[in-house]
Design brief:
It contains nine helices and seven strands, in the order H-H-H-E-H-E-H-E-E-H-E-H-H-E-H-E. The longest helix is centred in the N-terminal third of the chain and has 31 residues.
Length: about 260
């Protein structure tokens, strides 16, 4: 049995973008050919802008879908997962946490790299990622031969269902930038809350100022709070992907935050 890690751009999301774009184009053509006067011009402009935005989004998401496919040529997802997991070291008998585990890929990769430790994967498995589920994660863990080393459970990154200092390592990949309506620094600090003293973290995300503000200032704040060896690695310069791939896929802000509590 082979694992099925799905795609980070679900087909339902992709088809939704295609449908919305198609509707915008149809409405634009209708407005241009059927309406006159000021309202015709206004609707021409609105539907025209929506069509352009939709086409741009459709092209970008299609590129991402192809890049993130585990069956495709680039296998970017696999490169990112294995690259992030290589920084997760858990002591024998210890436990690591993967926040926003999706289909279980990073959780499983960490378990395979730390055979004497255990992993916990948490996710809310929301409707926008309905193809991901706890059952899928468990099936993938069985396929990879590490089911006995992993527990998957429901959980929200905004308020993790764990006590302070529970885990020896925490990790996550491309999760926090997707969560709106909350300070993303606070989101990441919630993950760090459950990390034991002396534990390590490896967080990969779109760690850009637009999401997190001034990163150097924030890293200094973490150091002052007692975190050690806080380091930020740009993963778009050949680390996980090439600069050209990152630019083409709008992933130029991809960085890996490493450190120890």
């Amino acid at each position: 049995m082979k694992p099925n890690y799905k795609n980070w751009v679900p087909k339902g999301m992709l088809w939704g973008i295609y449908a919305a774009t198609g509707l915008a184009v149809i409405l634009f053509v209708w407005a241009v050919t059927s309406l006159a006067g000021i309202w015709g011009l206004v609707l021409d402009g609105i539907f025209g802008l929506l069509s352009v935005a939709g086409l741009f989004g459709a092209v970008t998401m299609t590129r991402l879908y192809k890049a993130f496919s585990y069956e495709g040529k680039t296998r970017l997802s696999e490169r990112i997962i294995e690259g992030t997991a290589s920084y997760v070291t858990i002591p024998a008998g210890g436990t690591g946490l993967d926040v926003g585990c999706g289909s279980g890929a990073l959780t499983i990769a960490c378990a395979k790299r730390n055979p004497e430790a255990k992993m916990v994967g948490v996710d809310r498995w929301g409707i926008e990622y309905s193809s991901f589920s706890q059952a899928l994660c468990e099936e993938n863990a069985k396929a990879e031969g590490v089911a006995e080393k992993i527990e998957f459970r429901q959980g929200d990154a905004r308020k993790l269902p764990f006590e302070d200092e529970t885990f020896d390592a925490v990790t996550s990949n491309y999760v926090y930038h997707n969560i709106n309506g909350i300070d993303r620094r606070k989101l990441l600090e919630e993950t760090l809350r459950v990390l034991k003293k002396g534990g390590t973290f490896a967080i990969h995300d779109l760690l850009s100022p637009s999401y997190y503000g001034d990163l150097e200032t924030w890293m200094e704040e973490l150091r002052k709070a007692g975190y050690e060896k806080v380091e930020l690695i740009d993963t778009t310069q050949g680390k996980f992907m090439t600069a050209e791939e990152a630019k083409k896929l709008w992933l130029k802000g991809s960085k890996l935050l490493l450190g120890q509590k």
